[in-house]
Structure formats: C-alpha cells, structure tokens
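Dear Dr. H.,

I hope your travels went smoothly. While you were away I took the liberty of generating a structure for the chain from your last submission, since the lab meeting agenda had it listed for discussion. I wanted you to have the full record in hand beforehand rather than looking at slides cold. The sequence, exactly as received, is reproduced here:
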Amino acid sequence: MKAFLKKTIIFLVPLAIFFSAMEPLLRNIPNDYSYKNNYLMNNSNKISKLFLGSSHTYYGINPDFISGNSFNGSHISQSINLDYEILKKYKNNWEALEYLMIPIDYFTLFSRMRNGVEYWRVKNYNLYYDIQLSSKLSENSELLSINLKSNIKRVVSYYLLNKTPITCSKLGYGNIYVKSKDLAETGKTAAIRHTTKDFSKLNETIKILEEIIDWASINNTKIIFYTTPAYTTYVSNLDADQLELTINTINKLVEKNTNCSYFNLLEDSDFYASDFSDADHLNQEGAKKLSMKLNELIITQ
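The corresponding predicted structure, in token form, is as follows:
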C-alpha cells in the first residue's frame, strides 16, 4: 500500500506542477482581447468613432479608412450583450465619442455567444476584459476552457517560436489573411447556422439597445446601426420572416430616437464576389470599401 501511494505521488506531483505552471503561461500570451482591453484602457477617452459587433465587423471595418480617431472594438461571435458590457466598462472615458457604430445583422437580435458554437470565448471577457460574465471555473481558466493539445501548441508557438497570436491591427481590424472559400457553399451553411426558431432573446435585446440608445443620448453620441453586406448566396438562403423582423425592429427603434440612424447594406450593389472571403464576410478589399462607405455616411449625419 505504501509503495502504491509513493508511486502515485511521484506520478501526480509532476502533473500538478505542469498544470499549475500552464495557466499563468497561457494567460501571459498576448491576444486580441487583452490587446483591445489595454488599448481602450489607455485610449477610450480619445476615440470619436467606435465600432462594435462580431466577425462581420472584425473583418469588415478597417479604421485606417475612417476619418478621425476610430477603433474597431469587435470580436468574433461577440453578441450585442457583450457589446454593451464593453461600452459600460469604459463608460466614464467616452468623452470624445461622437459616433457609436453597431451592426444589426440577420442573427444579432436573437443570438448570444454563450448559446453558440463559440461559447468557449466567454472566458476571454472574464480573463482579459475583467468583465465578470460567469463564476464557472471552466469560464475563468485557459486550461479548462480549451483542450490541452491546443494549449500546448499555443505555448510552443509563442514562447519557443516567437509567433504573435494577435490577429488584429493597431486599431482593432482583423487583418489576418483569410483564404477565400466557396461562396455557394458558405452562403448556404452560414444562413442555416444563423437562422433560428427561438426568438426568446428578442425582448432582452431590444432592452439592451434601448439602454445603449439612452446612454448615447445622455452623452451626446450618435448611433449608426447598419446591416453589413453579404453575397447573394447568403441572402437568398435567409428566412424571410426572421430578416423582416430584424429590419422592422431596428427601424422602429430608430423612428423613436432622433440620435439614431439605420443603413441596410445587406444587398448593396456596390459589393461583388471579389469583395468576399466567404458569403457573409468581407475580405480586405471589401473591408476597405465598406469602411469608406460608412465613413461617407457618418459625414452626412
């Protein structure tokens, strides 16, 4: 029995040391979340145009083509409730903010990160924005939220190969090269993924939007809602009822609030197949085009 216990201890001690060392190593690796948090901590009081949203914004808005001090504060799969959390975190530092740009896409009013395939990203807001969304241990740990193989690869890549895991530009644009995908296939699969029969989050989302609008009104900030362009293979596979509900809901909000505007660019004819990396995400040329278009719309407000 003593021999077995001794062998068990000899086996477990190195494992305990390994796992206790891995967590701080992983947390010290730079990432888009820690980068954007640090940027906003130091610069939110200088930003005049802030873009929030999910991957459509992350890959679709390049602040290099926006006049003034702008920043892309979006993240992949970032839902509207997380947009609001970021806005609230720096609520005392937005004195220069003139325009708040919020995408209202086909899925925006009904989705939450926690309920999607990217739910594991919740830990990034807990760990790197210090926005306490959850007390679950798995959502407050790098080691417990991502599989061990992937974590080991991250440690090797950063500490041994000196590769940076940050995939955004200095102003938050997702400028990492993304290989173009089949527009027909991605149009259908993305539309199916973004279509829901569960509209239970709608009222909650409207309340969040109303709170954002009220905050913006008090702070003399204008809000521009917009629907990002998508290729025809995505648009043609959307559920008409969900799309209509989305557009009608945001139009009603805008009608009631003079500090808001809405631009539906979903089927904008200025965007071609060559502007997309897949059916609902713009490539670098498409992002330049959308950024310049929104910049013109801002100027006319």
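Two observations you may find useful: The chain has a mean pLDDT of 92. The two ends are 79 Å apart (CA to CA).

With kind regards,
E. W.
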